[in-house]
Fold ABC transporter ATP-binding protein.
Amino acid sequence: MPALTLENISKIYPARPRSMMQWLSSSPQASGLRALDNVSLTVEHGEFFGLLGPNGAGKTTLISILAGLARASSGTAKVCGHDVVTDFKQSRRSLGVVPQEIVYDPFFTVRESLRLQSGYFGLRHNDDWIDEVLGNLGLSDKADVNMRALSGGMKRRVLVAQALVHRPPVIILDEPTAGVDVDLRRTLWEFIARLNKEGHTILLTTHYLEEAEALCGRIAMLKGGRVVALDTTAALLARVGGTDLEDAFVRIMNDDEFLGVTA
């Protein structure tokens, strides 16, 4: 049973009607934005998988569907075999997501925020694991600091800690190192690489393609809501050519005829 399964996923955002009469006469999918177009892929347990694409390619929409924040217009998505719609409680217990945006509750300290997050998943007396996560993310000395007092980089570390606090088997990192310092990037990747070696499945989106090339065993590339390339990192580089993943990525995104999807 794969860690993540996406079968024929499409997502259409309805166009905003110009008038009430237009809204009443239009179908929900008429003239809408097709953010995802029949996307199918699987991520096996223990993989470090890269999901790459330019802005607007559909990466965050796909993650939102897996996390239950958006519903696909068609197709099915599963996390560890649990359908994200019909078995949403188990699918969400199996998933930890680090979002792009920095979102936090300004009324709590770091430790209180993590205890609260644990409670969402029915976990009590989770302080030993919270301490371990805080230590590995360089947050131990900030444990009793209010979230409002943290820098942007420290807040992003807390987002990572919140995604890990219930020990999910699948971890999604949506551009986790965007705009952060070198120290956080190094600390984060060391900890995530350790979790991956311990059996956690990692799905990464990033615009730092050197990170994806160094970390990911397989990569899928999205373009216009479609999967245009899916292969191991080494095989993709060999097939497309180029000196590195960034070069291969640019070639694929600029070639309107390219459709290099493999099974």
